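quick one, 240 residues, struct below
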Amino acid sequence: MRKRTLPYLLLGLLLSGCILRTNGPSPDLPLTVTPARAGSATQKPRLTDTPIPSAAPTASPTPDLAQIGLPPEDASNDAFDFVSQMCDAQWLNRGQVLPCPGQDTGGSGGYVMSFNGEIQGLPSNLDILLTFAPSVQSGALFGRYPPFTVKSGDRFRAVLACRVHTFCDVEFGLEFYDAQGRIDLRHWPYLFADPPIVVDYPLEGLAGKTVQPGLSVMANGNSLEAYAVWIAPHIYRPIP
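---
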């Protein structure tokens, strides 16, 4: 009996070994997973506390007045700016005080407003004052600014023209007011077909006086397009 059962026992042991090898781990697969090395593509980047630099603010560039025919100058030499102080002035036509800024509606009462040079086909950092005279016979517009003390060497500078794509026929005026009344300095007639007028006018005769600067524009005849522009109007003061 023992001799007969021995072959069966041997066969059973062989079969059980095959089953263990079949259900166990494959010899081709690793038993453990190796961690990724530092700097490998599978490693997630670490967050740091390094702040992100912010963009530094940049100052607006000083207008290059040579582009419009005026002498070049430093921004610190601008003693009086007629555009930035536009609404500090009192604007009138021959019969009423006008709001500031006005609206570009072509109204018969006239108006004043400002815009940048890009609208006039010039560099955008050039400021422009638009004065529209009333649409009546010889309509006129006047602006009287706050008091200003003129010093030796001061000069009024601006470029005078029509607004682009308009057909103005006007007369520009530079005036000053003191306790005795108006001091009429200079007038410049201008027709749309003319080249722009470059003004570099000395104010030496007013040196030492405190006066109110004034600008005016008058339509020649009954002009419906009296769109007169003052490009970069200011008083330049040389640094001693």
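Helices lie at 2-23.
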